[in-house]
């Protein structure tokens, strides 16, 4: 028996990230414009970093509350009242070591090995992989792509629900497609969950990145108090804190001890000084978030207008999130195309093959970057597309 054959089949079956593959292929090249991962180019703002640094220097380095320090949970209450007009309690909030951990814990809280969870694809690949690692089978329901837009067919979603289904994973606004559920979509999904006794794991990390106006519709707008919904979220996108790995779950207070236990036996909590930075982000960061959203909207228009003008790209401007999801004429292998594009243009894109069923013919570009870089990337990609 070799080292590899002695490992858990569940561990060895964990897939390599198709996004990271391209990043590793071209990381560090001179003149590279990296649009492949889902983050902006700005570092964490000073007021957040200072709050964390001050707490670190003040000695806030001991074991802390598993559910999150009280000031952070109270700041989350204020944030949801301000942004979602929803009155919640600190007992609804659980601080996690990233949005990724929030997703993993949500899966473990509601699913058992052999169960199924239904998700809409194309989708960020980490959810399906996290479900597999927990022994829960992900069942894909592809969104429909028509006229450059993505839409949900509720009948296809209902048809995917089976005896072993325990949850629906709904990411809106969506990474990578930008699809954003309407209030009617959310009501239809919630009705299915109620009918079948299912949980909803709602990933609304991009809720503020909604370009028609204000924020995107949320399950918080249509749910009742006893609905089975777990919201997973992160400080990464709104406040340029991707490297901090701090997230949260919104859950019914009755689950409090269960979630505390899951946190205890995975990370034993998020460092207290980092949570102080998160408090500052919530309480002082609205202006920074609004600047990020305005920049993303301008860049979305710059990139999409340039690519649509080639008449060889099928897409429309996304309503939400941070990504242009592009179908380029003649591209049948987006993985090979991503490697070719980075070689020939110096623009890093994520291949649609990384995003599961329905994504293979597409390329994802994150547009939350310096507007000059986005304009340059658009020109390079135009030349590449027109030369094919």
UniProtKB/TrEMBL annotation:
One Pfam match, by short name? Aminotran_1_2
In this chain the Aminotransferase class I/classII large domain maps to 33-381
Provide the cofactor list for this protein: pyridoxal 5'-phosphate
Q: Name one GO molecular function term.
A: pyridoxal phosphate binding
**Keyword match Transferase:** yes
EC assignment: the record states 2.6.1.-
User: GO biological process: what's one of them?
Assistant: amino acid metabolic process
Q: Which reaction does it catalyse?
A: L-aspartate + 2-oxoglutarate = oxaloacetate + L-glutamate
Q: Keyword annotations for this protein?
A: Aminotransferase, Pyridoxal phosphate, Transferase
What is stated as this protein's family in its record? Answer: Belongs to the class-I pyridoxal-phosphate-dependent aminotransferase family.
The entry's protein name is Aminotransferase
Organism equals: Sinorhizobium meliloti CCNWSX0020
